[in-house]
Specification:
With 343 residues, the protein is an alpha+beta fold. 38% of the residues lie in helices and 20% in strands. It has a seven-stranded mixed β-sheet, with helices on both faces.
Length: 343
Amino acid sequence: MTERLDALEAEAARAFEAAKDQGALEEARVRWLGRKSELTGLLRGLKDLSPEQRAAVGARANRIRENLESRYEEARSSLASAGAPSGSASAPALRDVTLPGRSIPRGHEHLLSQVLREVREIFHGMGFALAEGPQVEDDWHNFGALNIPKGHPARAATDTFYLRPDILLRTHTSSVQIRVMEKQQPPVRIICPGRVYRNEAVDATHHFEFHQLEGLYVDENVTLGDLKGTLDRFLKSFFGPATEMRFSPSYFPFVEPGAQVEIRCFFCGGKGCPVCGPLSGGWLEVLGAGMVHPNVFRAVSYDPERWTGFAFGAGIERLVMLRHGVPDLRLFYENDVRFLHQF
């Protein structure tokens, strides 16, 4: 068998060297290296040899295959550089240089990235700077400084991913507000977009990781009216100038008073539909907000008698689902090109 392998190698090498065009070279490749070639048949027959013969013959056959593949590539490159025709005809194929070029498929930003960029631009136009912080956070910045007491349900391991007793994956980007206020004296006007994590079961409206946008404005004589004006401009810029907004009382440990911000459902005009639900009265919850709690100011050594401020937070996925009618939050993370191509 070894003698036949050597002879086969020599015959194939001569065939590759003798090919005058790409068509002849391809015929030689199929004959000597294809699935039905003699070399492939010899390799398949190794199972019938003894273990000692199989090892020796197999190594030699593989070496010969690698050598022939290298010779084939050399011959193909040589013909291409010499301008050999692709077929067996001697005349080169004519090319129509007036035909339009082939378009190259181009990618684009993920829908969430597009919306995050748009949100940043809206708030940048209102004078808000961008702030970022670590996704692995400590208990103080994520809970303690935000007036979230020990024993609060949000601190439970059933809601939060703990890496160590006092180290966790941040549950909101409010922790960035604390880090900024620790380093900067008022006035402060920032937004903090980023990825957050919560220990939740995954379904159409919940996920263990998602994106959140936090906003903070601290200065002298900041009022609830400033908060309403800021959010009204943002929501009308994002959802459209006809957007109607309202505040409903709500509780959050880090603001007082707190509010749930809702917009009139733009799918049904407030008449009630599957999107806003039969009990909502035609309103959609979009974010939470309120005036910064004095205890939060004390935690960062701000004088609550001098400084006032407002804060707000929204889930980016929630905003995108409402504006674009996306029915399932999981679609943002499954990388299904049929979904991604729509945006």
